[in-house]
Amino acid sequence: MIIGTLLLVGILFFVQVRFEFPLSVAIMICIFVLAAVFWVAEPIPGYATSILVIFLEIIFFANPIGIPGFAFSQNKNPSIAIFLSSLADSSIILFLGGFVLAKACVKTGLDRFFANRIIRKFGVKSHQVLLGFMFTTGFISMWMSNTATTSMMIALSFPLLQILPEKEPFRKALILGIPFAANIGGVGTPIGSPPNIIAMGILRQQGIIIPFGTWMLFAVPLVVVLILFAWFLLLKLFPQKDSLDLVVEFQEPEGGAKSFSFRVTSIIFLGTVVLWFTENLHGVSAGVVALLPLILFPTFGILNEKDINSLDWSVLILIAGGIGIGVGFQQSGMGPWFSGILKPITKPEYAVNVLFFFVF
């Protein structure tokens, strides 16, 4: 923390003296750089860094203790609630709903049910099984975290990997194909990956609202194309001399699709997805819809207190820090100031260069 404080003061002094930025912009740059360094180096947990970001924004921008010279926006500082709202942003609630859905699917075996039905449709040849695994992983990753999906699908693939020779190229293709597909599939829905939620939250602050269904209409075709490309690339990198016949069957929970918990989970899952996808028709925001699984699963006894406590709450706080950065950009005036700098390079060809820069 001492090093972080010295880093913050040093950056503030350098930025102010060297570039003569407005004080609020200089402070926001310092907070942003400090957060980036802490998130990468992790001298403290990532979620603690997110809370630190919100705390610093409150101290410097809301200025509750009346620090001289820190009065912004025509001597009227933003309220503390504006910065604390990052912790309860509708995007956070949306991601929480996704966590609850994923937890219920894993507990009742709905994830393995989907995996069995989807993979079988692709055939028994090794290249078909690989494509089946990748599309199944991509589909599940739309609703669960990429890491959790990868862990689950690799665990499910272990029995298959054990019967294959060690030098069989299909083994490497499958082990690589699953995480590739999980990362690609995470783009498909707003709840598929934390960066999606952070982007939606920051855009919402700017008055740009992207409905759940609209996101999927643009993202799902992209997911399909990218998974096909990754599958084709893996087949070329790990060519197989002889095509193998493989039968994939994952063990499903006792009772299967006939159990009460399975049926209730299926209905709640499909109902939630339909309500998300038809947001433009009924007008209820995706964040509000995400509260339904959080209410219904404990009500029907699908999830208990232990299940709720085991959710990745630290990830939600981490996301809140990203949204808090966006709030800070807006309240400090850094957003408009930064937009003015980028205005000369807003042509499409520059946008493509920026995209490749952030990807790589």
UniProtKB/TrEMBL annotation:
Cell location: Membrane
Main location: membrane
InterPro entries: Cit_transptr-like_dom, SLC13A/DASS
One cellular-component annotation, GO: plasma membrane
Coiled coil: none
Membrane-spanning parts: 21-41, 47-67, 79-102, 140-161, 173-192, 212-234, 260-278, 284-303, 310-329
Domain annotation Citrate transporter-like: ranges: 37-352
Bilayer disposition of the protein: Multi-pass membrane protein
Pfam families found in the cross-reference section: CitMHS
Protein name as annotated: Transporter, DASS family
